[in-house]
Amino acid sequence: MTPSRSEVMAEAQRRDLEFRHRESTKLLNPQSHRVGMEGEVAFSEWSGIPVDLTDRPEGDGGRDFPIPWGGKIYKLDVKTVHYVGPDIPYFKVEVGMVRAALFVMYRLPGRYLAGWTTREVLLEAEKQGRVRTFGTHDVPTIYIPEGDLFPMDDLREIRRKP
């Protein structure tokens, strides 16, 4: 059964409160689960693939959605990027956390799916030195400009919705 947006957001709120002291929770934002799950809901609504609300105390391992594509199942990780600033927004993944095969960027503010990329593109960006820390968090992060993402329409084959 596909959970409703309100059910997913209620679960996100519960996780923000309950998981805030777990090692797997990165408190880059006090509402990190709500922010992240908002991106998962947007992808679910776009693709027709339900959000997985399974409780994973050690984290999801970079797998928000199993994606059947070309006869194989791929891990897809939705990353929500909250950015307000003068320069270009970046899609970002922490060094060592490029676990999924496919990544989708959900953008706040604006609330839209900005595009997608692959593990290979991110690892190549890391090799090219596109790694830095952002904001007040001293976490080495691979980044690529939002404009370098592939268009969401390229993933249309995976959609379960017309």
Task: Write a brief caption for the model.
The chain is α+β, with helices and mostly antiparallel strands.
Architecture overview:
Strands 1-2-4-5 form a 4-stranded mixed beta sheet. It is α+β, with helices and mostly antiparallel strands and 162 residues long. The chain has helices at 5-18, 32-47, 119-127; strands spanning 65-69, 72-82, 90-94, 102-108, 112-118, 131-134, 137-145. Helix 1 (5-18) packs antiparallel against helix 2. The longest helix is centred in the first third of the chain and has 16 residues, at 32-47. The two termini are 19 Å apart. The chain has 3 helices and 7 strands, in the order ααβββββαββ. The protein has one domain: Trna Endonuclease, Chain: A, domain 1 (3-Layer(aba) Sandwich), CATH 3.40.1350.
Q: Look at the structure and give the mean pLDDT.
A: 81
Query: Uncertain segments of ≥5 residues (pLDDT<50)?
Result: none
Helix content: 10-25%
Number of domains: 1
Fraction of residues in β-strands: 25-35%
Output the CATH topology: Trna Endonuclease, Chain: A, domain 1
Quickly count the helices. 3
- Which architecture does the CATH hierarchy give at level 2? 3-Layer(aba) Sandwich
CATH class: Alpha Beta
Key phrases:
alpha+beta; 7 strands; 30% strand; four-stranded mixed beta sheet; globular
Task: Please give the structural blueprint.
Layout lengths: L4 H14 L13 H16 L17 E5 L2 E11 L7 E5 L7 E7 L3 E7 H9 L3 E4 L2 E9 L17
Parallel strand pairs: 2-4
Antiparallel strand pairs: 1-2, 3-7, 4-5, 6-7
